[in-house]
Amino acid sequence: MRIIAIIPARGGSKRLKNKNIFPFNGKPLIAYAIDACKKSSFINQVYVSSDDNEILKVSKKCGAIGLLRDPKFSDDHTPKIVAIRQVLKQKELLKDGEPDIVIIPQANSPEITCRNIDEGLRLMFKYNLWEVMSADENGVQNAAFRIVKREHIDNDFLSAHCGFVKANITDIHTIEDIKKLENKI
Asked: What is the pLDDT of residues 56-98, one digit of tens each?
């Protein structure tokens, strides 16, 4: 079974310049998601999809495989899942075969751990779910990660075969979010 992670990390963040590679505790934000994926017991390969060469360069240094994203899938209005679907067609990714499961961690969620991801995968395996998402302690979905079976990633309807993993993870969008997280740790 081929299980991969694709971290979408477009350039051009407006509220926090260079958000995805912004330094946090001595590392770029994206490094935390890459590390969590690399330490997972299940993930075979970690990819970063970006339209920004600096993000791709930093991601490669952190151990991910960079995939240049077409700019038409990198604007403020393109849903993440549309960008992921485009990445899944790229030759560089497909050279090792079609993935069975895709983990989509958010680049700007530095609290994510391999335990969060592996818990989501175990839940998927146990109940044969189509997708698993992270949610906070109140059951509200956050964007820290989403895990989707490849065969269902092109669905255009909401799945009835989904589960949630509790993960109180902060999404970084502003300098205030960085300061809040620094005070939390």
From this structure: 999 999 999 999 998 888 888 888 999 999 999 999 999 999 9
Show Cβ contacts of residue 105 under 8 Å, excluding neighbours closer than 6 positions.
Answer: 5, 7, 33, 36, 37, 112, 117, 144, 145
Cα dihedral value 171, 127, 7, 40, nearest 10: 100
The pair of structure tokens assigned to 57 is 């360069």
Rounded CA gap, 178 and 131, in Å?
29
Contact present, 10 and 36 (Cβ < 8 Å)? no
Q: What is the pLDDT of residues 10-40, one digit of tens each?
A: 998 889 999 999 999 999 999 999 999 999 9
Rg, Å, the chain Cα set: 15
Stated as kind and residue range, the H or E segment containing 70 is none
Task: Enter the pTM of the model.
Answer: 0.95
**H and E: helices and strands count for the chain:** 6, 9
What is the rounded distance in angstroms from the CA atom of residue 5 to the CA atom of residue 160?
Answer: 23
Is residue 47 within 8 A of residue 56, CB to CB? The reply is: no
